[in-house]
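Case study 2.
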Amino acid sequence: MTQAAELREMSDEQLTFMIKEAAESLFRLRIQAQTERLDAPSELRKQRRSIARVKTIQSERIRLAATKAAQAAGAATK
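Prediction:
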């Protein structure tokens, strides 16, 4: 599991790739859970939290970019 500080150092492409991998892994784990072949049920929670952590960092970056754009637009109109 990756810490948030490590995720913040990654590029947007790397974060997107991590979400894709985690979603695929979560899908496989859900299938295993349905067929009662899941060894570690805690893996489901770990994958969900990993996806949420990456999505949170992506949304932080989007908000930061929007804020900077708004500030630049406000400074340009003055």
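DSSP finds three helices and no strands in the chain.
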